[in-house]
Design a protein that fits this description.
about 20% strand; 2 domains; alpha+beta
Length: about 110
C-alpha cells in the first residue's frame, strides 16, 4: 500500500518494519523505514500522517473488521544505525590489524640484525 496505492508525491520508497499495538487495541504505532535522506524521511512521515484516515479505511475494508486502531507513524532508523555501526566496527578492525602488523614488524627487524 505504501508504494503503490498512496499517490502522495511526498511519500518516498519505504516499508513497514514494525507495528506496536497499544493495550486495548485503540491505537497503533507503525514504524516505517525510508530509502532516502532525512528530508525524504520527514516528507514521507508528513504524507503518511495526512493519509492515515485513508489507510485506516482501507485496512478496515481489507481486514473485514469493525474497528481499526488510530494510526501513528514513526521513522525507523535502526537499519541505518546498524549500517553505521558496522562501518565503525570495520574501521576499528582494520586499525587493530594494522597496529598488530606494525608491532610484529619492528620485532622481526631487530631479530634479523
Amino acid at each position: 500500500m505504501l508504494e503503490g496505492e498512496l499517490s502522495d508525491p511526498r511519500i518516498a520508497p519505504s516499508y513497514v518494519t514494525d507495528v506496536v499495538l497499544a493495550p486495548g487495541g485503540k491505537s497503533a504505532r507503525i514504524y516505517v523505514a525510508v530509502h532516502g535522506s532525512e528530508q525524504e524521511e520527514e516528507s514521507t512521515l508528513a504524507g503518511l500522517m495526512t493519509a492515515r484516515a485513508y489507510i485506516r479505511s482501507q485496512l478496515r475494508d481489507r481486514m473485514g473488521v469493525r474497528h481499526v486502531p488510530d494510526l501513528t507513524f514513526a521513522i525507523d532508523r535502526s537499519q541505518k544505525m546498524t549500517g553505521r555501526m558496522e562501518e565503525l566496527l570495520g574501521r576499528m578492525r582494520k586499525r587493530d590489524k594494522r597496529r598488530s602488523m606494525e608491532e610484529t614488524q619492528p620485532a622481526e627487524a631487530t631479530n634479523q640484525s
